[in-house]
Queue: 2 jobs
Job 1
Amino acid sequence: MLPSISRRELSYLLVIMNLSEGSVKVSISKIAKSIGVSPPSAYEEVNHLEKKSLVEKDVDGVAVTDEGRKAVSLLLSSHRIIETWLKNLGFTDEEACNLASQFDEYVPVQVVEKLFDSLGKPSKCPHGLPIELPSQS
């Protein structure tokens, strides 16, 4: 079962993934600068992510684990599925996105999967971004 992640955790994981450029590890100072927090704050959050097995940290820097990548993919897909559902209810693209961001991290995976099926398994969200549910193993 994939761990659920918060918006804050998602922000950190996405920054680390974007800064890593492949397999390069990222320094705490680069993460802090990119997010706009102090290095001690970034260090604390990275330690939190490491305890959840979402990142690995060593003297060379920080890298997102496979489990971390799957958790990011799951939250992004959940957001996109919920956004698609809200769009189908009549909300504009922006309204659907903003509303989905308010609760997507709290919706159980089983609900998201049922919603995905009931929507006809869409391949893209209203913004044209891909929807790919990772396996739960």
Note: The mean pLDDT is 90.
Job 2
Amino acid sequence: METFDLVIYLLPIVFMLHEFEELVFLKPWLERNKTWIGRKFPRFKKALAGTASLSPSAFALIVAEEFILISLATIAALVFHAYYPWLAVLLAFSLHAVVHLVQGLVLRRHVPVIATSVLSLAYGIWGFVIVSEVFSTGEILSCLVLGTIFMAVNLWVMHRAAAAFDRARQ
């Protein structure tokens, strides 16, 4: 198996390892720390409250949808050699790992997603080194920008869908 193919295959696996840590540890941590974070960063109080209020099932719904998108992008890359969606997701996911690491630095507290964010970022850097041999700087930057925008919009939509899922279950 070529290294490039291995990097492609690993994306859904690394993603799910990170998301399992979020699913298991993030909500209880948010419950314990949301008041402190809201006082320290009042600008994020509303977003924090929305995320903290999601049920584990609603949060799992978001993760499942993201996993489906990442899996589809991975399949498209491996089967159809349609690499741009996969590259966009890889870069956006790597940026997501950086955001978690920055959160830990800014909060100056342990954030439960730090361990797998380090793993995810190491994978992302390795992947970036490999893809930089295949794609031009312009292609990489375009995929980074478009992937980040797409994933941010998707996350926003999915948080609203998850909240609606929770309301429908009550």
Note: The mean pLDDT is 94.
